[in-house]
Amino acid sequence: xxxxxxxxKRYGSSPPVLEQINLAIDKGEFVSLIGPSGCGxxxxxxxxxxxxxxxxxxxxxxxxxxxxxxxxxxYIFQDATLLPWRTVSRNVGLGLELEHVSRESRKQKxxxxxxxxxxxxxxxxxxxxxxxxxKMRVSVARxxxxxxxxxxxxxxxxxxxxMTRDRLNEELLRLRAEQNWTAVFxxxxxxxxxxLSTRIIVLAPSPGRIAQEITIPLSFPRTSATRExxxxxxxxTEVSRALRGVHSA
Length: 249
Fold this sequence. Notes:
Layout: E1 2-9, E2 18-25, E3 30-34, H1 41-49, E4 56-61, E5 73-76, H2 88-92, H3 94-98, H4 103-116, H5 132-145, E6 150-154, H6 162-179, E7 182-186, H7 190-196, E8 199-204, E9 209-215, H8 224-227, H9 230-248
Parallel strand pairs: 3-7, 3-8, 5-6, 6-7
Antiparallel strand pairs: 1-2, 1-4, 8-9
Helix pairs in contact: 4-5, 7-9
């Protein structure tokens, strides 16, 4: 689904942000990027999305450049970035409007997605009337409206309390099981990365590079019971140890 070959990136004459990134992600994987601040996690997402271009190397999404494959990619930012003058329904349908999908088809898809993320009761509400968790659900529904094959997420739940984050993590995996998209997810939370991922990429800074890859073979579906299992705790310990290693290097 996604291949990065010898990808490096620098801005102007500054030191490189990323250097010699080689990574292959299969269809249906959920891969989390974790590492110290400044290691290039968000830059890597922007490169994959086509929002910026690598200084060297190549990136292919289903055999196409990110720009060519842009209709296959959706991006969820750290903030919900909802348009305050639009209702929940109209925020979710924004991408479909831009793609000139007919009003009737758009209405059916939007209603289905809003129901999927559990927000039918606030479909006509405005962002100012929603909690932080609700806003992120709207953002997720909007990203899924265009039926992406690749979903990029940059710490979408970082500002939420732990209980809300855990609930949305479970919801995200439920949506993935139903829609079978591939995900690349940036987080600072080791427990979140372990819970969500089939594989975790640990990045080291100065410049950003892949320090370690850790496969997470926990079975799906993952629930609150998963977080209480010895295997989960073992993987959290392993990833935390790897993260401490790149911090101290």
